[in-house]
């Protein structure tokens, strides 16, 4: 009944039904090269941390999949399956439509400001981890597998930087869109200006780190 | 035709079903409450305050967690039925969970839930146990007290639509003991 939809290095993702609702089961497995007992603990902790971040976003009104059940024994999170499409596929289809792109940039900037407003760093912002719900066109954040709690300006700036890299490498000519995202983000964030300055910093410094 | 709704558990190697019967105008709640307090073993079911339940999914989520704990030998309470009541609660206070989500002396809307066994057997037993008017489970939302739900689950004020509230409730249950 469960259909494997992604086999990653650290997790398997299944599509299935959970008591009549479309669901995702995300099962983490230990990285085999580490210490087995330590590994088991770390894996379990990551699973709970992912679920916790999802829940804290939801409570703050940020659209994220609802967590249905955490099976600590199987390191599996059962959660709502978002009926929709990725921002990635949306942009591939609609990149030529400025009004649609602008509206989307606005939604992304707003959602990220809200996310950082509760001091959650996503850790893996890409256009595949942003969904658009079919039912109401709401922007949904998924995959909190690398998420953590932090109020540091630097962490927030790096989060945005990761998204910028994802944008520029996946979507040609998306500079204007990313600028719009940052503009909305800066306006809506408590420490928007400082984070923006830090982002500029990170961006400029980056080539030296290569 | 029975008004009881039955749904199988979706646990590996577990084929038991969850049966739910909804009652309004219950007149023997006080009696039932006394029997629960006295751990009357003939009451093999969870008797719930229907006002705290938004829909059957909420029950299935609690039943799933309770049955899973039983399967792993990790029950925190006496049996799968008290565990189900406990698992409806967003916190780890067992006594509070039972008083809030379980039937009390003054309850008039009662949801009876049995994990395991046949629907026929449950139908027969429940008819002798609860004195009230049996209703189709679809009527459940009519008896939900949203204020109570918001309070018990500490639903943030910014979440307003019934859908958002329901998601918050389910999330709170899932994160119980993990946050
Ligand atoms: N809640 C969800 N709703 C819809 N699709 C999802 C959901 N969670 C994951 N997916 C799909 O599965 C893929 C992998 O899930 P993800 O959480 O990103 O796992 P990983 O951390 O291994 O990358 C996602 O890119 C997405 O396509």
Automatic annotation (TrEMBL), chain A:
The keyword Iron does not apply. One of its GO terms (cellular component) is nucleus. Its EC number is 2.7.11.1. Belongs to the protein kinase superfamily. BUD32 family. This is non-specific serine/threonine protein kinase. It comes from the Eukaryota. One of its GO terms (molecular function) is ATP binding. SMART domains: S_TKc. The keyword Kinase applies. It catalyses: L-threonyl-[protein] + ATP = O-phospho-L-threonyl-[protein] + ADP + H(+); L-seryl-[protein] + ATP = O-phospho-L-seryl-[protein] + ADP + H(+). GO terms for biological process: tRNA processing; tRNA threonylcarbamoyladenosine metabolic process. Keywords: ATP-binding, Kinase, Nucleotide-binding, Serine/threonine-protein kinase, Transferase, tRNA processing. It is an enzyme of class 2 (transferase). Residues 1-210 form the Protein kinase domain. Pfam families: Pkinase. InterPro entries: Bud32, Kinase-like_dom_sf, Prot_kinase_dom, Tyr_kinase_AS.
UniProtKB/TrEMBL annotation, chain B:
One of its GO terms (biological process) is tRNA threonylcarbamoyladenosine modification. Pfam families: CGI-121. One of its GO terms (molecular function) is kinase activity. It is found in: Nucleus. It comes from the Eukaryota. InterPro entries: CGI121/TPRKB (IPR013926), CGI121/TPRKB_sf (IPR036504). GO terms for cellular component: cytosol; EKC/KEOPS complex; nucleus. Its main location: nucleus. Keywords: Kinase, Nucleus, Transferase, tRNA processing. The keyword Kinase applies. The keyword Transmembrane does not apply. Belongs to the CGI121/TPRKB family. Component of the EKC/KEOPS complex that is required for the formation of a threonylcarbamoyl group on adenosine at position 37 (t(6)A37) in tRNAs that read codons beginning with adenine. The complex is probably involved in the transfer of the threonylcarbamoyl moiety of threonylcarbamoyl-AMP (TC-AMP) to the N6 group of A37. CGI121 acts as an allosteric effector that regulates the t(6)A activity of the complex. The EKC/KEOPS complex also promotes both telomere uncapping and telomere elongation. The complex is required for efficient recruitment of transcriptional coactivators. This is EKC/KEOPS complex subunit CGI121. It comes from Dimargaris cristalligena. The lineage of its organism: Eukaryota, Fungi, Fungi incertae sedis, Zoopagomycota, Kickxellomycotina.
